[in-house]
Design brief:
mainly alpha, Farnesyl Diphosphate Synthase, two-stranded antiparallel ribbon, 2 strands, globular
Length: about 325
């Protein structure tokens, strides 16, 4: 199934799950403000999102012989609820003001309520996967992405970092979280047809890590080159927050003193659309954007090579190939 068709099907399940949980929460309090805060989850989650995690889990589930789609989709709703939790807390830490074109939760309701809403989403997500064969993998995923976020926060407090720290953050916060573990969750939930379970788990790593790292570098590229209404979130957030990326690291390591000085002048500044020509010129002229684009494509090609050497039947590789193409062409 192609990702857009899956998203349409999955969003129906996700929407019903959100309504059910919001309704259950209404039984706890009649306070209109708290009800409004909790209800905002539905608006925020359904406003956007690519659903890559549940999609990869679903494709992997089918490849491993999974049959019960209805039960499976109810379980992997937890992946999207956990992602919503992560975004709510991430926006607080990154001072983001827009998410899917809507005010971020802390902007709308304040930091304290946003933290609590994130905690509620975490609990909902945990309830979806608790007791399943995939729960240990889900727990490992949580451990990794939170560690990756801790590296993220730590790096923003530093004037400079090593490239190894950026790569480690990409591996934990994006590649493992968005690609490798969702695939492995799908394989684990299939239960039957898992005679080659170890091979499938290894395949998830060989395909998922390069695709995920390429995806994250592409995300950082879009943060620099896309306008806010295109990506649905605050522009230049990485520069504003002092986030070290492959692009800023390239300038730090390979740029001239003049270029490094110009980057320093933009670092942690409240940049607006008026600054776009200056920002784009700096990263383009320095060679950082071309270097990043080259690496993105190299990682995507590595993911495609993992498909070629996977030993899986060609019919089982179609969706994985299509996902590489879909990500390669994305603009948000």
């Amino acid at each position: 199934m192609e990702i857009q068709a899956f998203k349409k099907r999955f969003d129906q399940v996700l929407g019903r799950a959100l309504k059910r949980r919001i309704f259950e929460n209404k039984k706890l309090t009649k306070d209109p403000y708290v009800r409004e805060v909790v209800a905002y989850v539905e608006q925020l989650v359904m406003a956007g999102g690519k659903r890559i995690r549940p999609y990869l889990a679903y494709v992997s589930y089918k490849v491993a012989g999974g049959k019960d789609d209805k039960a499976f989709l109810e379980i992997v709703v937890g992946l999207e609820l956990f992602h919503a939790f992560a975004l709510v807390h991430d926006d607080i830490m990154d001072h983001g003001t827009l998410r899917h074109g809507l005010p971020t939760t802390h902007v709308r309701f304040g930091t304290s309520q946003a933290i609590l809403l994130g905690d509620l989403l975490f609990n909902w997500a945990n309830a979806c996967l608790n007791g399943t064969k995939a729960y240990p993998i889900f727990q490992q995923m949580i451990h990794e992405v939170i560690t990756g976020q801790m590296l993220d926060v730590d790096s923003m407090a530093r004037a400079s970092v090593e490239m190894g720290m950026i790569e480690e953050r990409h591996r934990l916060k994006t590649a493992s979280y968005t690609f490798v573990r969702p695939m492995q969750i799908g394989f684990a939930l299939a239960q039957r047809g898992m005679r080659n379970a170890e091979h499938l788990m290894t395949f998830a790593e060989q395909y998922g890590y390069p695709l995920g790292i390429g995806f994250q570098i592409q995300d950082d590229l879009l943060d620099l080159t896309s306008e806010p209404d295109e990506i649905g979130k605050t522009a230049f957030s990485d520069l504003r927050d002092g986030q070290h990326t492959l692009f800023t690291q390239y300038i730090a390591q390979c740029g001239t003193r003049v270029v490094q000085s110009e980057l320093k002048a933009l670092w942690k500044k409240n940049l607006t659309e008026k600054d776009r020509p200056k920002v784009l010129y700096l990263f383009e002229m320095s060679g950082a954007l071309d270097h990043g684009r080259m690496l993105i494509e190299a990682y995507f090609e590595e993911a495609e090579e993992a498909l070629e050497s996977s030993g899986l039947a060609l019919k089982n590789l179609v969706a994985f190939r299509e996902l590489v193409d879909y990500i390669r062409k994305r603009t948000l």
